Automatic annotation (TrEMBL):
Belongs to the class-II aminoacyl-tRNA synthetase family. PROSITE patterns: AA_TRNA_LIGASE_II. Its EC number is 6.1.1.22. Pfam families: tRNA-synt_2 (PF00152), tRNA_anti-codon (PF01336). GO terms for biological process: asparaginyl-tRNA aminoacylation. The gene is asnS. This is Asparagine--tRNA ligase. Keywords: Aminoacyl-tRNA synthetase, ATP-binding, Cytoplasm, Ligase, Nucleotide-binding, Protein biosynthesis.
Length: 434
């Protein structure tokens, strides 16, 4: 048997006889021909079994293989303009490695969302889900390449945290030996601030947890977030970094997955092609005016919800940056605008097409006395933040950062209705299986 090759590399073997290892995705027959759709995780290829090219036993077996049979298929790589990948395999030999013990539960028909979620471990085998996970991988790689190529240092933040920095209502509480309670992290930001004072430009990238009792299409209880933090950076520099990251990620994914996005996910890729810096920038006050003109009963000081985000973003063909939100809406660590103490030096990036906030961040308060007063005003225990206050006690400098959620970013790029499809095994309010 020839050394196995991957379908993604098939073009390099035109005219050669190769062996593929994979699973039977679908099959159909036409007299002396069997057409087997075989996938190997890198792609799908049509394998044509002609009665005159194989033994009678192989031809007979090819007509009765159940879906998801694992296979070793040997054949000649031939160019085919009708194929989505430009090639097909003229089969010379075929061997079933393992046949399903029972009928695969996901046939080639429509299934309800609840059933598909119960079958998530099997649903991942579908072509659509495989494309989404490959796009997710490319998003993660593009994020890492962006920061690594700009001199950032990856610093891993802890998942267990000793205190609730913004209240316990949206934190998962866990017992922690003899030390009492601990919490699953909502963010690595505070730790990145400390790391930035040591390394200048840092980022963490890992799972975060939110115990919000929300069932919207934009929420998960466990998701992945990248959080850069930069010393000697103000809000303007932070916003520039935000737009550069988003533009880099989108264009990197588009360069690699344009065909899959268009043909498998039916994504309008022309809308992604427009995602290039600079992004439009408006203040929160200007955003409120836009929302009010659209007929929404919003007043200054209200949060901008999902519907309102859609109104604001609908005027643009690329993400829009909304900055300087009311200080009362933001966490204690946001720095207030020196020109207007009513607003904070923060910014959200809203994706177009109704996908909402994909980035939130801003400039941090670097004045020790002001930060101590903010902690007290928020009713937080100062002793829990003594280590965080040390960041300001020893050579404090202006610094800024943000967090970008991977799942919302993937949902937008892929044009998905719900973030549950963007992560291999989603965790939501009503789901913790499989």
């Amino acid at each position: 048997m020839f050394p196995p090759v991957y379908i993604a590399d098939i073009a390099a073997h035109e005219g050669q006889e190769v062996t593929l290892h994979g699973w039977l995705h679908n099959r159909r027959s036409s007299g002396k021909l069997h057409f087997l759709q075989v996938r190997d995780g890198t792609g799908v290829i049509q394998c044509v079994v002609f009665k005159g090219n194989v033994t009678p036993e192989v031809f007979q077996e090819a007509d009765h293989l159940p879906q998801e049979t694992s296979l070793a298929v040997t054949g000649l790589v031939k160019k085919d303009a009708r194929s989505p990948i430009g090639f097909e395999l003229d089969v010379k030999d075929l061997r079933a490695l393992a046949k399903p013990a029972r009928e695969f539960p996901l046939g080639h028909k429509e299934h309800g969302v609840a059933f598909l979620m119960e079958q998530r471990h099997n649903w991942l085998r579908s072509q659509r889900q495989a494309v989404i996970l490959r796009v997710r991988h490319s998003v993660v790689k593009a994020i890492r390449d962006f920061f690594d190529g700009r001199g950032f240092t990856l610093v891993d933040a802890p998942v267990f945290t000793p205190s609730a920095c913004e209240g316990t209502s949206t934190l998962f509480e866990v017992p922690y030996f003899d030390l009492g309670k601990a919490y699953l992290t909502q963010s690595g930001q505070l730790y990145m601030e400390a790391a930035a004072m040591a390394l200048g430009k840092v980022y963490c990238f890992g799972p975060t947890f939110r115990a919000e009792k929300s069932k919207t299409r934009r929420h998960l209880t466990e998701f992945w977030m990248v959080e850069p933090e930069v010393a000697f950076m103000d809000l303007d520099g932070d916003m520039e970094l935000m737009e550069q990251l988003v533009a880099h990620v989108v264009q990197a994914v588009l360069a690699k997955h344009e065909r899959e996005l268009r043909d498998v996910l039916e994504r309008d890729v022309s809308k992604l092609a427009n995602v290039k810096a600079p992004f439009p920038r408006i203040t929160y006050t200007e955003a409120v005016e836009v929302i009010q003109k659209a007929g929404h009963p919003m007043k200054w000081g209200d949060d901008i919800g999902g519907d309102e985000e859609t109104v604001v973003a609908s005027a643009y063909d690329r993400p829009v940056m909304v900055h300087r939100y009311p200080a009362a809406m933001k966490a204690f660590y946001f720095k207030k605008d020196p020109q207007d103490a009513n607003v904070a030096l923060g910014c959200d990036v809203l994706a177009p097409e109704g996908y909402g906030e994909i980035i939130g961040g801003g400039q941090r308060e670097d004045d020790l006395a002001v930060l101590e007063a903010s902690i007290a005003q928020a009713g937080l225990p100062k002793e829990a933040f003594e280590w965080y206050l040390d960041v300001r006690r020893y050579g404090s400098v202006p610094h800024a950062g943000f967090g970008m959620g991977v799942e919302r970013c993937v949902a937008w790029i892929c044009g998905l209705h719900h973030v549950r499809e963007t992560i291999p095994f989603p965790r939501m309010m009503e789901r913790i299986t499989p």
